[in-house]
Every structure is written in structure tokens, then in C-alpha cells.
UniProtKB/TrEMBL annotation:
Keywords: Membrane, Transmembrane, Transmembrane helix. The chain crosses the membrane at residues 12-30. It comes from Desulfonatronospira thiodismutans ASO3-1. Pfam families: MlaD (PF02470). InterPro entries: Mce/MlaD, MlaD_Phospholipid_Transporter. This is Mammalian cell entry related domain protein.
Length: 505
């Protein structure tokens, strides 16, 4: 009898513990609902609330503060009524956004409560703005617009450089450059002593450059600071890219919108059916593609196509790209002049160069005004005045075609937004480059700039020279600076070194 009572006591204790545990779990799981019974209501309006349901959570900074109480249609817009806890203040400049939890998760409403200086919304108040994610159709429409723009640009480039006329024009241009190079070579051979004097002058100029660098240490320090700022901005950009990848991994943003669209599953089923029909027609030899597969000469045609692709890839491998940036300190004004060059080299003996120039001087134009005046029927009086105007269009551009013969390069085209030409000559196994640019040929005196680059540490170089030394307005100036450049191989190495966050989308 005592043994039976002991068993009953144990069972009673077990049942009591189970009831207490069940009560605790019920309290924890329903605590939010119990708290939120004493709530106040606010409204938000959206153009589209697809996937949002009543009793969906309302969050602020990731914390549940209420639930969606009702969703109705009001004046052709979705009106979402939210029940908010009384201890949560939502202000007049608040914003409500429809979010997705996970890649294919449920919808919820995220509320930005607004500024504390704005009035607090009372029961029945309206959130100032409702935002929903971008629709898939809008994303696909934008992608289609981008593809159309790329096609139009490709067609324009083909019209300019393609066809027999474009090829003939290019051939004539390079023939002219070749003749000019021959004449230039003759000039160099007949002026060998002059070249020796130029080298001696460069040695003297190197001494002058040392003196200038010692007296202008602040300018050089400014250049180094610019490089440091550029490195910091690159780090910020990489951090922002990592945040975008992390957002996509958590099912937020445009990528998540693409994945959770219900229309996508239907489109995939239709695509699978179309592929099945296409495969059956190919097996039966129907259609143009089916006939090509069943014909005996298909292999030969494919071989010819592959040969063409290999030839194209071989040309692509020979194509080189160089990105160059340099800043020059102008001794006469104390300003910094910066250049960003993009060199496209389809072959070893020719290349195209595009440049953007930040010139603090802007452009100066001279206008002449002639006035005639006659007083009381007397003789005419003629007055002539000249006026110089400086236009602060600091951003200039260059577009040049270049041809190379051994160590000599001849360039021509647009230089700093004006017509001109230039020459380069390499010394000491291409560790030193001498160059001269002649442009702004429409002025009284052309703008002539000469200098030298000393290359070191693979990707860096020092530059120095004399700018606009034919100017009659006192604009001539010594300059010195630092530059760096990257080739295809450098860019590939940099891109492969950038960390990419892991994750499935």
C-alpha cells in the first residue's frame, strides 16, 4: 500500500512540474501578444503590399514593437493599420518599409520612428511615407534599357571604325605618320650634336629639379597626402561592396526581390517546357538548327567557327590596357595639375590614348573689340580694345592616336581640348622618357610643354619639365610631380586580391 502511495506521489510531482513548465513556456511565447493588447494604431499607405499579411510583425531596429492589424484598400492604395506598443513613440516624419526576412521569408514592416524633435503620432495617426522594395518587372526593364544602350554604343563604334572607308582612312593616317617619322629620323641623324646638348641640359635640369624639390617640400608632401586619401577612399568603397554582398546574403535588397517573386516559378516551368520541345525538334532534325546538326558538313563549319574564335582571342590577348595617373606641382602658381590617362594598345607599334586633365588655371581667351564713333558729322574715330577672359573650365580632355618606331613615338589629335601633336623618346632601356607636346595651335603662340619621366619600382615614376615656355603672358612654369600606372597584368592581380564574401544567394 505504501509502495502504491509512493508511485502516486511521484506521478503527482511530475505532473506539477509539467504544468509549471507549460505555463512558463506559454508566458514566454505569448508575452508579446499580451503586452501588445494595450496598443495604439497608426496607418501607412503603400502602392503594393504583395506578401504582407495581418499579424505580420512590425519592427524598429530589428525589435518587435507591434503587429499588422488590418490591410484595406483606400483610394486605390493599400492602407496598412499597425498596432504599436504604448511605450514606443513614432514621430510625424517617420517612414515605414516593407522588408523580407531571409531569401524567401515572410514579409514584415520596418518602421523608422523619425526625429525626436518632431511631434509624436497619436492613435489613428498616419506615417509620412511608405516604401516597398523595387518590383522585379522594374528591375528587368532597367536591365533591358542598359542592354539597348550597350548595343547602340557598339553600333556607333562599328560605324566609325568599320567598313572599307574607315579602314582606308586609318591606313592613310598611318602612312602619313610613317612619312613624318622618316623625316623626323633624318632630322635626328643630322642633329646628333644637338641631342648631346639636350642630354647635357637634362643633367643640368636634374640639378635644378633637386633644388626645386628641396624648396618645395610642402608641395611634394601634398602629393603624398593625395595618394593616402585615394587609398582611404578605396578602402571605404571595398567596405561598402562587402555590405551590399552581406545584405543580399540575408535576403534583402534587389537580389532578394528577384528570388521571392511568385512569377519566377511559373516562368521557370514555361522555360523547361520550351527546352523540352526544342530538344525533341533537334532530335528529329526539325528547324534550321536540327538540320545543321544532322548534316555531314556541320563539323567543318564548327571547325571554321572555332578557328575564327581562336583568331579573335589571339587578337584579344595582344590587346593591352594601361591606366596612368600623375600630379604635377606648378612652381609659378603653387597649384597641382592632375592627369588620368587610359592607353589602349591593340598592337606593339600603335596605340590610342584618352586623358582627363584637371587644370587649375582654366582657359584664357582674348577678344578684340573695334568701335567707331562720329561726332557732329566730323571724322570717324576708331577705337580698338583687347580683353582677356579666363574661363574656369578646369576639366579638359585629350584623345590621341600614336605610332611607334623603336624608341620614338609620334602622337596627334586633341591635347587638353585643343588640336595638337606630341613626340616621345625612350632612353636607358625605357627607364627615361623625353616628351614634348605642342597644342592650342590657334593661339598667338602655341602651348609647348617639354619634360622627362624617370621610371622606378615597376609602377612609379618621377616627372619634371617646363610648361608653356613660349607664352608671352608669363604663364611659363617649371613643374615636378609623381605618377603611377597599372597594366593589364597589374589590374588582374589587384582584382584577384580583392576579397569576395562567401554565401549563397
Amino acid at each position: 500500500m505504501a509502495k502504491t502511495a509512493s508511485v502516486e506521489i511521484k506521478v503527482g510531482i511530475f505532473v506539477l512540474i509539467a504544468i509549471v513548465l507549460l505555463g512558463y513556456l506559454t508566458t514566454v511565447l505569448t508575452r508579446d501578444r499580451i503586452i501588445t493588447r494595450d496598443t495604439y494604431e497608426i496607418h501607412a499607405y503603400f502602392d503594393n503590399v504583395t506578401g504582407l499579411r495581418t499579424n505580420s510583425p512590425v519592427e524598429i531596429a530589428g525589435i518587435d514593437v507591434g503587429t499588422v492589424k488590418d490591410i484595406t484598400l483606400h483610394e486605390n492604395r493599400a492602407r496598412v493599420t499597425m498596432a504599436i506598443r504604448p511605450d514606443i513613440d513614432v514621430h510625424a516624419d517617420s517612414q515605414a518599409t516593407i522588408r523580407t526576412r531571409g531569401v524567401l521569408g515572410d514579409k514584415f514592416v520596418e518602421v523608422n520612428p523619425g526625429s525626436a524633435t518632431e511631434p509624436t503620432l497619436e492613435d489613428g495617426g498616419v506615417v509620412s511615407r511608405g516604401v516597398q522594395p523595387t518590383d522585379l518587372d522594374q528591375v528587368m526593364a532597367r536591365i533591358g534599357d542598359i542592354a539597348d544602350d550597350i548595343s547602340e554604343v557598339s553600333r556607333s563604334v562599328s560605324n566609325v571604325f568599320g567598313g572599307p572607308e574607315g579602314e582606308q582612312d586609318m591606313r592613310e593616317f598611318f602612312d602619313n605618320l610613317r612619312e613624318a617619322a622618316v623625316h623626323m629620323n633624318q632630322i635626328v641623324q643630322t642633329n646628333a650634336r644637338g641631342i648631346e646638348k639636350i642630354v647635357a641640359n637634362l643633367q643640368d635640369f636634374s640639378g635644378d629639379l633637386k633644388t626645386i624639390s628641396e624648396t618645395n617640400k610642402e608641395g611634394i608632401t601634398h602629393i603624398v597626402d593625395n595618394f593616402s586619401q585615394a587609398s582611404s577612399q578605396l578602402n571605404v568603397s571595398l567596405e561598402q561592396l562587402g555590405e551590399i554582398m552581406d545584405t543580399a546574403q540575408h535576403g534583402e535588397g534587389p537580389v532578394a526581390t528577384l528570388l521571392e517573386d511568385r512569377q519566377m516559378s511559373e516562368d521557370m516551368r514555361r522555360t523547361a517546357a520550351s527546352l523540352e520541345s526544342l530538344t525533341r525538334k533537334l532530335d528529329e532534325g526539325e528547324g534550321t538548327l536540327g538540320k545543321l546538326i544532322s548534316e555531314d558538313d556541320t563539323g567543318r563549319k564548327i571547325d571554321d567557327a572555332l578557328d575564327g574564335i581562336n583568331e579573335f582571342l589571339d587578337r584579344y590577348d595582344r590587346f593591352q590596357t594601361v591606366v596612368d595617373f600623375r600630379s604635377e606641382y606648378m612652381a609659378s602658381t603653387g597649384d597641382m595639375k592632375s592627369y588620368l590617362d587610359l592607353t589602349l594598345q591593340p598592337a606593339e607599334d600603335r596605340f590610342y590614348m584618352l586623358s582627363l586633365i584637371d587644370d587649375p588655371k582654366g582657359r584664357t581667351r582674348t577678344t578684340e573689340t573695334v568701335e567707331r564713333e562720329r561726332v557732329d558729322g566730323g571724322q570717324w574715330t576708331v577705337t580698338e580694345t583687347e580683353e582677356e577672359k579666363t574661363y574656369k573650365d578646369r576639366l579638359k580632355f585629350s584623345a590621341q592616336l600614336a605610332k611607334r618606331w623603336n624608341d620614338f613615338i609620334l602622337r596627334g589629335g586633341l591635347i587638353e581640348s585643343t588640336g595638337g601633336f606630341g613626340m616621345d623618346y625612350f632612353l636607358w632601356d625605357e627607364r627615361i622618357k623625353l616628351y614634348t607636346d605642342v597644342f592650342d595651335l590657334g593661339a598667338d603662340r602655341p602651348h609647348v610643354k617639354s619634360g622627362a619621366n624617370l621610371y622606378f619600382l615597376d609602377n612609379f615614376y618621377l616627372t619634371a619639365g617646363f610648361d608653356d615656355y613660349l607664352s608671352k603672358h608669363g604663364d611659363s612654369s617649371f613643374f615636378g610631380g609623381l605618377g603611377f600606372y597599372f597594366t593589364d597584368e597589374d589590374l588582374k592581380y589587384l582584382m584577384s586580391s580583392v576579397p569576395v564574401p562567401d554565401g549563397n544567394f
